[in-house]
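User: Here's a protein and a ligand (adenosine-5'-diphosphate). What would the complex look like?
Assistant: Let me lay out the input and then the predicted complex.
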Amino acid sequence: TSTLVFDNVTARYAPGAAPAVQDVSLEIPRVGHTAIVGPSGAGKTTIFSLLLRFLNPDAGRLVLDGTPLQDWSLEDLRRRVVYVEQDTPLVPGTLRENLLYTHDSAGEEAIWEALRAVRLEGRVRELPDGLDTSLSTAVISGGERQRIALARALVGDPEILLLDEATAQLDGLTEAAVHEVIDRLARSGAVLTIAHRLSTVIDADQIIVLEAGRVRARGNHQTLLAED
Ligand code: ADP
Ligand code: ADP
């Protein structure tokens, strides 16, 4: 079956350093929303770094669709697994150039569909130059930037979306749009989010609680609350 597996993974950023994650075993179904929850320094971002192959495990292994992650070409991996950071940088240039940044062959319809999904369609249509508006001249809020970054990821129709869902600084509309996108994508693909608190991932199908690099608990919102 199609899954992403972490099999007893230990990883450190430098030889001799303390492990950033230790003996982590996870199974992430290829459909649904998995949330990784834990305080700062727990190892959440490291899970993403391993998945993107920014970092290699010291022990254990990662397997995607039955194939060890290291055997995937980076090109294939980057197409399947897309990461939207808390502050994904936008590139200088137009909105269109930003949306097509990683998928330059995407069509007009894919662009507008992505903009609709993040609730930016109306806003973009109102801009004097529409998609050709230069981002250096347009007044764009932080929340809108985040939604543009998310739209850019959606244009490529990723199978696995990694989302740093630190919604702390997000405005209400952005937070609602992000949750809608998560819910919709999680019906056909895998969405993996990072959050600090359990209260922000009530709807996740699976929640993994990390603490000091180790899996401390797993379940869903209800079962985890019952344990605490
Ligand atoms: P995480 O989401 O990885 O658990 P946070 O986003 O809460 O961690 O960041 C932990 C601390 O580090 C916060 O005080 C935050 O302001 C700071 N921080 C996070 N990312 C950056 C960054 N890119 N540059 C500078 N400080 C950062
Ligand atoms: P979280 O995302 O939960 O805040 P991280 O995965 O960023 O946690 O960090 C896990 C551990 O790895 C922490 O002890 C952190 O200091 C360390 N770490 C994270 N990134 C680096 C890095 N680039 N270099 C060295 N240590 C790092």
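Summary: The first strand starts at residue 3 and ends at 11.
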